[in-house]
Amino acid sequence: MRIDAFNRVSQLYQANSTKKTLNTEKKGNPDRVEISRLGHDVQTARTAVAKAPDIREDRIAAIRESMDAGTYSLDMDALADKLLAGYTF
Residue 62: pLDDT band by 50, 70, 90 thresholds? Predict the structure, then answer.
């Protein structure tokens, strides 16, 4: 590789020059970010989910009571269908 060819290529790409950045505040055009309505809704939903408890104690208490009493019944076919619905083969 010839050195003079490298110098020409670097001049084409202006590898050695520095670029000036514009100060947008002086020109009256400050940068800003706007979040869409959907973004606000997603953020609100995430906050609500984060605050919700992971375990619904009232439902668990009712199931425990019926299990202790021996009256809890479970449809195994419906359970299997729900489990398989989550997987695609």
Answer: very high
**Phi, psi (rounded to 5 degrees) for 33:** -120, 135
- As a whole number of angstroms, the distance between CA 85 and CA 89 comes to 10
Q: Are 51 and 57 in contact (CB under 8 A)?
A: no
Cα–Cα dist 41/48, whole Å: 11
Q: Is 18 left (phi over 0), alpha (psi -120 to 50) or beta?
A: beta
Q: Which tokens hold the place of 14?
A: 């202006």
* pLDDT at residue 19 in the model: 57
Q: What is the pTM of this model?
A: 0.35
Helix/strand/coil (H/E/C) assignment for every residue in 36-83: CHHHHHHHHHHHHHHHCCCCCHHHHHHHHHHHHHCCCCCCHHHHHHHH
